[in-house]
């Protein structure tokens, strides 16, 4: 939490523009010139707050997916959940959707469809017992959906410009009204996560054990699908598809807290925003005065983690 507070402060102080740390600090102290106040209050503060929410959403969604599939490689960006949300939003943009709340709802439906495909593959094809096979199936679904999303660019030039900017994944240009559209989904998903945390811990011991303890595995999976759809859909509609956060954050949380899903979920709350905001700061400074898209940077950093996990001598099933 202390690291997260420092990173949030750094996000307000540093950026790709002319307003440096000294001018930004004067704004935080209640002074500063009008340009610095605008940059800090209207540009950096909203993207920092949205980075907090997006980090929480993607980190918790990744932990839930890994727990319910019992697969350490399950991640919304790898298994087609984020791609489903992205395709749904792109389709809505082509048909003229402009309201942020409408985009969030459509993205959540797309994420739910992607999540159902993931769990269907894991449950009925036997891929759930092989983490690498499940990732390959998710990669195929992701490739298909991204191809369909690219195809939509040919039909509507107005939507094409917005889709191109949004599809790479970024916190740049986000406003406080985007944050307000995130909050209802996060609150509802939080209630669901609190309800399924203990049953998920029992489900990790097997379906028979969970049933013997009075839990209903089918209902648990359904609630997890709804929670993941709410979290990933809201995050994707706001910041675009950002990959590997849902893989790296739960991996780090388990390394620190152990295999208990309840501890993992709690630790994902600070670790998710910590990773997203840190990556956002680096994306601003790496090619200043321009900005590197956040989704590109997380992919560059997350891919080696995926390779390291796959190449591990023993890849455990959760």
TrEMBL record:
Keyword line: Cell membrane, Membrane, Transmembrane, Transmembrane helix, Transport
Membrane topology recorded in Swiss-Prot or TrEMBL: Multi-pass membrane protein
Pfam family, one: FecCD
Membrane-spanning residues: 48-65, 77-99, 105-122, 134-155, 182-206, 241-257, 264-286, 292-310
Main location: membrane
Domain of life of the organism encoding this protein: Bacteria
UniProt entry tagged with the keyword Metal-binding: no
UniProt-annotated location(s): Cell membrane
GO biological process: siderophore-iron import into cell
Xref: InterPro entries: ABC_BtuC-like, ABC_transptr_permease_BtuC
One GO term describing the cellular component: plasma membrane
GO function terms (MF aspect): transmembrane transporter activity
Family statement drawn from the similarity comment of this UniProt entry: Belongs to the binding-protein-dependent transport system permease family. FecCD subfamily.
Protein name from the UniProt record: Iron ABC transporter permease
Natural source organism: Billgrantia kenyensis
């Amino acid at each position: 939490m202390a690291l997260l507070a420092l990173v949030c402060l750094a996000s307000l102080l540093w950026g790709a523009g002319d307003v440096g740390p000294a001018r930004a600090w004067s704004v935080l102290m209640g002074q500063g010139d009008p340009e610095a106040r605008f940059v800090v209050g209207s540009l950096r503060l909203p993207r920092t707050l949205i980075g907090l929410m997006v980090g929480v959403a993607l980190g918790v969604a990744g932990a839930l997916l890994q727990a319910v599939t019992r697969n350490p490689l399950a991640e919304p960006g790898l298994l087609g959940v984020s791609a489903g949300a992205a395709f749904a939003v792109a389709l809505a943009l082509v048909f003229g959707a402009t309201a942020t709340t409408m985009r969030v709802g459509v993205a959540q439906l797309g994420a739910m469809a992607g999540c159902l495909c993931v769990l269907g593959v894991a449950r009925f094809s036997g891929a759930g017992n092989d983490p690498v096979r499940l990732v390959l199936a998710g990669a195929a679904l992701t490739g298909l959906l991204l191809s369909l999303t690219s195809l939509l660019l040919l039909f509507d030039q107005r939507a094409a410009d917005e889709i191109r900017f949004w599809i790479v994944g970024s916190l740049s240009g986000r406003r406080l009204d985007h944050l307000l559209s995130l909050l209802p989904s996060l609150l509802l998903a939080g209630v669901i996560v609190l309800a399924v945390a203990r049953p998920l811990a029992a489900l990790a011991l097997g379906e028979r054990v969970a049933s013997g303890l009075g839990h209903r595995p089918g209902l648990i999976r359904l609630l997890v699908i709804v929670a993941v759809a709410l979290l990933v859909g809201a995050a994707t509609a706001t910041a675009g598809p950002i990959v590997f956060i849902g893989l790296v954050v739960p991996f780090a949380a388990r390394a620190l807290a152990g295999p208990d899903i309840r501890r993992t979920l709690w630790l994902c709350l600070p670790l998710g925003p910590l990773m997203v905001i840190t990556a956002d700061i680096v994306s601003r400074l790496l090619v200043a005065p321009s900005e590197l898209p956040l989704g590109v940077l997380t992919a560059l950093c997350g891919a080696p983690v995926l390779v390291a996990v796959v190449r591990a001598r023993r890849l455990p099933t959760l």
